[in-house]
Amino acid sequence: MNARLDLLEPYPFERLRTLLAGADAPGLAPIRLSVGEPQHPAPAFVHAALSANPAGLSTYPLTAGTQTLREALAAWFSQRFNLQRLSATDEVLPVNGSREALFAFAQCVVDASQPGVLVACPNPFYQIYEGAALLAGAQPVFLNQTAVNRFDLDLETVAPSDWKRVALLYVCSPGNPSGRIVRLNEWQRLFEYADRYDFVIASDECYSEIYFDETPPLGALEAAQRLGREDYRRLVVFTSLSKRSNVPGLRSGAVAGDASILSQFLRYRTYHGCAMSPAVQQASIAAWRDEAHVRDNRLLYRSKFDTVVPMLAPVLDAPRPEAGFYLWASVPAAWGGDDEGFTRALMARANVLVLPGRYLARDAHGENPGAGRVRIALVATQEDCIEAARRIVECCHSSTVSSSPHASASA
After folding, report:
1. pLDDT at 403 over 60
2. What are 249-266's pLDDT values in tens digits?
């Protein structure tokens, strides 16, 4: 077996199951806010497009997708990010969801023959970044994102000698879990680092279409164009229909950016055997071409945040994020910063599932930047989110402090 598999950490939800084992929930219907899985209905026209194209199942699809799909992707990226130029032939590719592509990208980009090769990523982070780095033969290096640095990437904590060994930098904007959007001046600095130290940037933007005002989040391609990098050199952007269109089961996404990198990524993917089903391609074309359902989706999330954030404010420091559907909440003082204990208490007392922040981060630079926080995914229905908020408030008001770990869960 590949010995690198032993380097992989348990996934956050595996750790959550272990934490909650034996915690008897009260006689309340469970409300799961731990997993970032959209629960809004999928668009009816996507269902129709899937069922209307069974003939494609009798042919092998091209890894690069159809020209029609690539044109739909290029048109969406161009319109959404105000791009003057994006080639449907050379600068976009369909992928089977951003998760698959984010993992595969490291296997393509990282040269494991280079001694001490590194992959940099935010901390907290989407665990696929870490797993992709390890299985590509690299060592992950973490850039802490904390309230102290406004959840920015702390580039200074990595020494120049280590930056010289970085092959790939993962960026997530809007961030998971903070919802923070990377600013133009920050992109400029990231591009300067990529040029100086010769690495590739993978920009994970799967939450880019969930925001709360009329100003869409800045994307990396748009930032590159504004900064005169119209060839998108050293940059590839990853996005998905999962959150945008509430179709996580469709497994459909896209990448766009540096043509020279994407040509090699296509080469890798041809061997990897990850061509998108023709029926899924047709459904994806329909989804990428329609914005009305995306606007409706944003309104649903906006309404939930408008209601839930004020409800939680008296007991939780859980401000509205800039974008995305997570609350990155500080654990109440009664739990002494114990995110695991607070999570277990919510399960045992209220049957509400959230995720301990430490499970989304690693100890780095003297701290675990997720410790003392929980991630709350407002993906359930508005009614369930409101009921969960009511239960959380009640649980916090009834809390008692105990010196034993997790005692608050069974108090």
Report:
1. no
2. 999 999 999 999 999 999
In the chain the domains, ranked by start, together with CATH numbers, are 3-41+293-410 (3.90.1150.10), 44-290 (3.40.640.10)
Residue 401 has pLDDT above 50, yes or no: no
- Per-residue 3-state assignment (H helix, E strand, C coil) for the chain: CCHHHHHCCCCHHHHHHHHHCCCCCCCCCCEECCCCCCCCCCCHHHHHHHHCCHHHHHCCCCCCCCHHHHHHHHHHHHHHCCCCCCCCCCCEEEECCHHHHHHHHHHHHCCCCCCCCEEEEEECCCHHHHHHHHHCCCEEEEEECCCCCCCCCCHHHCCHHHHCCEEEEEEECCCCCCCCCCCHHHHHHHHHHHHHHCCEEEEECCCCCCECCCCCCCCHHHHHHHCCCCCCCCEEEEEEHHHHHCCHHHCCEEEEECHHHHHHHHHHHHHHCCCCCHHHHHHHHHHHCCCHHHHHHHHHHHHHHHHHHHHHCCCCECCCCCECCEEEEECCHHHCCCHHHHHHHHHHHHCEECEEHHHHCCCECCECCCCCEEEEECCCCHHHHHHHHHHHHHHHHCCCCCCCCCHHHHC
Q: Is the dihedral of CA 102, 107, 112, 114 positive or negative?
A: negative
Average pLDDT, the chain: 94
The residue type found at 382 is Q
Q: What is the number of other CB atoms lying within 10 angstroms of the CB of residue 295?
A: 10
Q: In whole angstroms, give the CA distance from residue 75 to residue 68.
A: 10
CA distance 354 to 340: 10
Query: What is the Cα–Cα distance from 259 to 175, expressed in whole angstroms?
Result: 25
Whole-structure pTM value: 0.95
Which 3-state string (H, E, C) describes 270-300?
A: HHHCCCCCHHHHHHHHHHHCCCHHHHHHHHH
Give CA–CA dist 198/209, Å, rounded: 30
* pLDDT score for 26: 79
